[in-house]
């Protein structure tokens, strides 16, 4: 068994999500800075936000990795040296890179900045990892096409100080290691420079050349078919298998996802990993962890390529399963009067039963009673986004508790 507990690495699409990930138990976060990352439409971080996020993480003994993982064209290289130096000065723990030119530039201008190799580099064998290791790469994010047996063999053949990071949860691209040109051809948006339009999620029909306007489902289904549409990866039921394969960092996808998603996924994997390392011999999967994962918006789950079952990857719908809505974040709790102050996220009514999501505590229920607005006026619902409202609670709540309601 891997004697070192694997790192739980969470996505941080903005500063709020970074803090949520850290608060709910992530050992490290990965995020996009102001340049050269593969999530052009995420909030990403300004320099000031990045400084604050790094300080927040480091004060709590956690790490921050910055994605510099585009495949840059010539014009993307302007200002690269200054950007890499700035990341080093900000004390970023590592950068995640896929392009050899960026790696070479980093070694020239910021030689002490740790480099992790992105999954976009499609590394599928131990010889390739040895090549990158000799270039000074500290960690390799393996291609998503590898099985657990292949990862285990890789770990047995590479140096002990060369780490393996692998995705364990989240939305997966159906293209080889996420490298795709469909978006470029269909929309002009370059997926390898952070602007993917996700045409793999579109619904497609087949049309015979001489029978225009006659559309044939590729499967015998009048709704069409999603021939490239991938389910969401979920490996929480297989923590022992992941650990025994030697993976050093369990990576969660989702820089475009909500803080609610980050909280539920990190909470579930934190509990599962800790439970396994507390008592590997008597470890049992807790269905409450899956219940937690299924609260946030997701597609159907599958196990990817880990067990050599890629045929289970594609399915008939691109729609999300939404079991719960986040209805607010607790701003404060008045212990004297048992009054909760909440910032609203989705509409909620006086009398609703809601769930409370908090780090290190089982999810529990409370009822909203005596709802009032910020001026103390009685209200029947909180309909406006980000409005402040208050209610009485029979249980003590804490700042930053996430409040959820079943749909």
Structure overview:
There is one protein chain. With 407 residues, the protein is α/β, with parallel strands linked by helices. The protein has helices at residues 15-23, 47-59, 80-89, 100-109, 126-134, 148-157, 182-187, 239-245, 259-278, 287-293, and strands at 7-11, 28-32, 63-68, 94-97, 115-117, 139-141, 163-171, 206-207, 215-216, 232-234, 249-252, 301-302, 324-334, 339-344, 348-349, 353-357, 364-367, 369-373, 381-382, 388-392, 402-406. The strands form four sheets. Strands 1-2-3-4-5-6-7-11 form an eight-stranded parallel β-barrel, surrounded by five helices. A seven-stranded antiparallel sheet has the order 17-16-21-13-14-20-18.
Which word captures the global form?
Answer: globular
SS field, number of helical segments:
10
Please identify which CATH superfamily of the largest domain we are dealing with: Aldolase class I
Number of domains: 2
- The tally of beta strands, per DSSP, is 21
CATH architect. name of the largest domain: Alpha-Beta Barrel
Structural class: alpha/beta
Main beta sheet, described? 8 strands, parallel, barrel
Helix fraction by DSSP (H/I, runs of at least 4): 10-25%
| CATH top level assignment of the largest domain | Alpha Beta
Average predicted confidence as pLDDT: 88
The whole-angstrom Rg is: 23 Å
Strand order of the largest sheet: 1-2-3-4-5-6-7-11
Report the span from N to C terminus: 41 Å
The percent range for strand residues is 15-25%
Extract low-pLDDT stretches.
220-225
Kindly identify the CATH topology of the largest domain.
Answer: TIM Barrel
InterPro entries: Peptidase_U32, Peptidase_U32_C, RNA/ubiquinone_mod_enzymes
Family: Belongs to the peptidase U32 family.
Domain Peptidase family U32 C-terminal: 322-403
Protein name: U32 family peptidase
